[in-house]
Automatic annotation (TrEMBL):
This is Uncharacterized protein. It comes from Rhizopogon vesiculosus.
Length: 69
């Protein structure tokens, strides 16, 4: 929340914050989840490619990442 409105910085900061969180046990398959962060799920898709409104009609957004710029 930002009393002056949401900025691009706000959005990118929250994405970064979310991707740098450690993975919860229920998000992993198998016993090896020590030190894994959500950003690790991106694999080779490390470039931010954009954001779009979710297709399911919910009040959420989809993040898109690419292997190259």
């Amino acid at each position: 929340m930002n009393s002056h409105g949401i900025t691009v910085h706000d959005v990118l900061f929250r994405i970064r914050e979310h991707l740098n969180r450690s993975v919860a046990a229920h998000e992993m398959r198998g016993p090896f989840h020590a030190g894994v962060k959500r950003v690790d799920f991106l694999g080779p898709k490390i470039f931010f490619a954009g954001i779009t409104r979710a297709r399911d009609g919910s009040d959420s957004w989809d993040l898109h990442f690419s292997q190259r710029v």
